[in-house]
Structures are given as C-alpha cells and as structure tokens.
Specification:
Blueprint lengths: L3 H32 L3 H19 L3 H8 L1
Helix pairs in contact: 1-2
C-alpha cells in the first residue's frame, strides 16, 4: 500500500464535510423548533447567515489563517 497519507487526508476531509453538514442540519432543525416554522424554510435563512458570517469574519484566506493562529 503506497501513499497512505492520501487516504488519511481524504477521510479527514470527508469526515469534516459530514460533521459540518450535520451541525448545519441540527441548527436548522433547532431554529425551526424554536420559531415554529417548517425546517425547509429555515435552511435558506441559515445558509445566508453562514455565508454572510464567513465573509464578515474572514474576508480573505490570509486573514482566515491569521484568525486560526
């Protein structure tokens, strides 16, 4: 078996994707329970909030790395 680092890296990336997707889904379900809305309507609002927050918090990759340090 050659290059096991690729397998490890891909499993980390895929695992992180599912973790973020699960947290996003849980947030949409929680908001829909709190406000009594159908969760499908909260998905778009959660998406917009996450998109805007990511652009406000770290607008460039260098700032993202600096924030991570």
């Amino acid at each position: 078996m050659q290059r096991p680092d690729v397998i490890v890296l891909m499993s980390v990336i895929i695992g992180d994707f599912f973790k973020v997707a699960l947290f996003f889904y849980a947030a949409a379900i929680a908001i829909s329970d709190i406000f009594g809305l159908p969760y499908r309507k909260t998905l778009l609002s959660c998406s917009v909030i996450v998109l805007l927050w990511s652009q406000i918090e770290t607008p460039s990759l260098s700032e993202h790395f600096e924030f991570g340090r």
